[in-house]
Amino acid sequence: MAASVWKGYLTFGLISIPMRLFSAARSDGIHFNQLHKECHTRVKQPLFCPFHNRMVERSEIVKGYEYEKDQYVLVEDEEIKKIAPPSARTMEILEFVNLADIDPLYYETSYLAVPEEPGRKPYRLLVETMEESGRAAIAKVAMHQREYIVIIRPRAHGLTLHTMYYAGEVRDVPEYGQTDDVKVKAEEVKLAKQLVDSLTGDFEPKKYHDEYQERLKALVDAKLKGREVATAPEPQLAPVIDMMEALKRSLAAREAAPKKPPARAVASAPVPAPEKRTGRKVAK
C-alpha cells in the first residue's frame, strides 16, 4: 500500500475521526536522465562543500535560512517539530459550504482520506451526511512544513481532500471573459448546440491517453531495435471564413461519420529492457 503523507484526526464538533491521507494522483511518463556525452555515464548531483573542498555526506547537512547574503540562521528538525501548529495533528473542520459554489480553479493537490479502524463509523456518518446535503467542508491542516486550507468533499463513498489555492494566488487576466465586442447570432448558438450534442458522451477517463508520451515510448523502443521513427501527422486546419457555414459542415461531417463503438483502455506495450553488456552502450 502507498505510504501516507499525513496521519492525525479529522474533527467536527465533538466528533474525532482518526485517519490518514494518501496522494490521490500523480503524473507519470517518460523521464530522461542526463548523461555525459563522451562516455554516456549518468551525471550525478553531488553534495559538495566549496569551503572544505570535499564531498559531504547527508548526515553532515543542516537546514539554514539565508536572512542576508551568505548569512544563515540554523534550524534543527526538533526545533521545527516543537513549533508545529495543532493542525499538524488535528484537522478541524472550520465550516461547511455548498459544494456547487466552489470553483474547481481553487483545487490544488488531491488526497484520499482513509479512516483508521476506530473511526470507520463516524467517517461513514460524515460521508453520507455530506452526500445528502451537497456540502463540502473547509478545514485547516499542516504538512510538509506548511499550513493549508483544504476542501473536503464526498466522492465515490469516501472523502477526497484538496489543498486550496488562496484567492491571491488565483491569477486575474483583464482580457478573460470579455464579451462586449463580440455578438453571436441565435442561429449560430442553435447550430453550435447541435454540434455539441453530437459530440456529447459519458465521462470515461480511461478513454483518454497521452499521445505524446506514447510517441516517446515508441521512439525509445524503435531506437533500441534500430528502427526509424514515424513522424506525427500535421493536423489540417481550415480557415474559418463563415461561422454558419463552418458549423453546418461540422454537423454534416458528424452525421456522415460511422458510429464508433465505446472506446476501451489500451495498455501500452512495455519498452523491452536492453540486454546487459559489459561497458556502457547507448542506442543512438
Provide keyphrases for this structure.
alpha+beta; seven-stranded mixed barrel; 5 helices; two-stranded antiparallel sheet; 284 residues; 21% helix; Ku70, Chain: A, Domain 2; 26% strand; extended; single chain
Question: Could you give the topology of this structure?
Answer:
Blueprint: E1 6-12, E2 15-23, E3 48-49, E4 54-55, E5 63-68, E6 71-75, H1 77-82, E7 90-98, E8 107-115, H2 120-133, E9 135-143, E10 146-155, E11 158-164, H3 186-198, H4 211-224, H5 243-256
Parallel strand pairs: 1-7
Antiparallel strand pairs: 1-2, 2-8, 3-4, 5-6, 7-9, 8-11, 9-10, 10-11
Structure commentary:
- With 284 residues, the chain is an alpha+beta fold.
- The protein has a domain at 6-27 and 87-167: Ku70, Chain: A, Domain 2, CATH 2.40.290.
- The chain has five helices and eleven strands.
- It has a seven-stranded mixed beta barrel with strand order 1-2-8-11-10-9-7. It has a two-stranded antiparallel sheet with strand order 3-4. Strands 5-6 form a two-stranded antiparallel sheet.
- Strand 10 (146-155) and strand 11 form a beta hairpin.
- Helix 3 packs parallel to helix 5 (243-256).
- The chain is extended, with a radius of gyration of 27 Å.
